[in-house]
């Protein structure tokens, strides 16, 4: 019987000294590939549309006056709650308003009011409706940065038009304040109407007094909401028209393209060495 000849073992690790020698022998070709990739990245960065970022810095409005306008006596609040006379949320801090900033409802209302459905449409022939426009606005245009220690929130708008980016950033926060004020006004009016009905239906002096105190606090809340445009968010630094693009970052793209080219070329040389070792 004839014996077969072993052509190599693919499990044998390559000789890394030979790999290094192969890489060094092809160093000029590897560098050339890196330069070509860097030039491709540079060309892409030149034809890509510049994106500008406008930022507005805000903090949640401090409701010290509104907190004082709420029922100060915990006993009266508990008494009215037990009697079923408290309607709605009578706490000073409004987590629903804080969550409004990230809500789809706010983004959709902003896109609808400003007629941005077609403006946000990419260069594609398919039909474009409000739903994908809002998705693109939230995912590609709008972003947030929060500082839990200071409570500072930065709202950023990335867009090809720097003037529109600044207008959208300021308008987005203004709309958030408008919707928050409208909700507070609606809830406070509803609470006052409800409390007036409950007061008329009870003869208990303590409950009537507590009811009048709550109506007084809701009335103060109405006054605060009407008088303060920045009801939910106080603007610390409004957005201005950016003069420098945010992306593409051309220098970074060129460096990354060069490094990617070098890495790809080295991988090719390494793969050739592995295959050559497997055949021997």
Structure description:
With 280 residues, the chain is an alpha+beta fold. It folds into 2 domains: 57 residues, no CATH class; 186 residues, 2-Layer Sandwich (Bacterial polysaccharide co-polymerase-like), CATH 3.30.1890. Helix content is 59%, strand content 9%. It has 10 helices and 4 strands, in the order H-H-E-H-H-H-H-H-E-E-H-H-E-H. A 4-stranded antiparallel sheet has the order 2-3-1-4. The longest helix has 39 residues. The protein is elongated. The N terminus is likely disordered.
Q: Runs with pLDDT <50, length 5+?
A: 1-8, 64-80, 82-93
Strand content: 5-15%
Report the order of strands and helices: HHEHHHHHEEHHEH
| Overall geometry | elongated
Mean pLDDT: 79
* β-strand number: 4
Radius of gyration: 32 Å
In total, how many domains does the architecture comprise?
Answer: 2
What percent of residues adopt helix (DSSP H or I)?
55-70%
How widely separated are the two ends? 24 Å
Number of helices: 10
Query: Architecture of the largest domain, CATH level 2?
Result: 2-Layer Sandwich
Strand numbers in spatial order across the main sheet = 2-3-1-4
Labels describing this entry:
about 280 residues, alpha+beta, Bacterial polysaccharide co-polymerase-like, 2 domains, four-stranded antiparallel β-sheet, disordered N terminus
């Amino acid at each position: 019987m004839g014996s077969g000849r072993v052509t190599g073992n693919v499990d044998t690790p390559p000789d890394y000294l030979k790999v290094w020698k192969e890489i060094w022998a092809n160093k000029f070709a590897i560098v050339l590939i890196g330069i070509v990739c860097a030039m491709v990245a540079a060309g892409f960065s030149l034809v890509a549309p510049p994106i500008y970022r406008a930022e507005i810095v805000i903090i949640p409005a401090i409701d010290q006056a509104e907190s004082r306008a709420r029922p100060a006596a915990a006993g009266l609040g508990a008494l009215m709650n037990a009697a079923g006379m408290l309607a709605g949320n009578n706490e000073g801090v409004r987590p629903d308003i804080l969550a409004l900033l990230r809500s789809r409802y706010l983004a959709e209302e902003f896109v609808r009011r400003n007629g941005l459905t077609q403006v946000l449409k990419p260069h594609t022939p398919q039909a474009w409706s409000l739903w994908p426009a809002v998705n693109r606005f939230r995912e590609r245009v709008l972003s947030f940065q929060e500082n839990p220690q200071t409570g500072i929130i930065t709202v950023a708008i990335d867009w090809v038009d720097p003037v529109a980016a600044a207008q959208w950033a300021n308008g987005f926060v203004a709309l958030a304040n408008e919707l928050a004020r409208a909700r507070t006004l609606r809830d406070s009016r509803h609470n006052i109407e409800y409390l007036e009905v409950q007061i008329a239906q009870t003869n208990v002096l303590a409950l009537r007094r507590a009811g009048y105190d709550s109506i007084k606090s809701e009335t103060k809340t109405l006054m605060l909401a009407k008088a303060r445009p920045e009801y939910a968010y106080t603007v610390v630094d409004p957005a201005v028209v950016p003069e420098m693009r945010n992306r593409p970052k051309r220098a970074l793209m060129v460096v990354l393209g060069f490094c990617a080219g070098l890495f790809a070329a080295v991988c090719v040389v390494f793969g050739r060495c592995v295959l050559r070792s497997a055949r021997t």
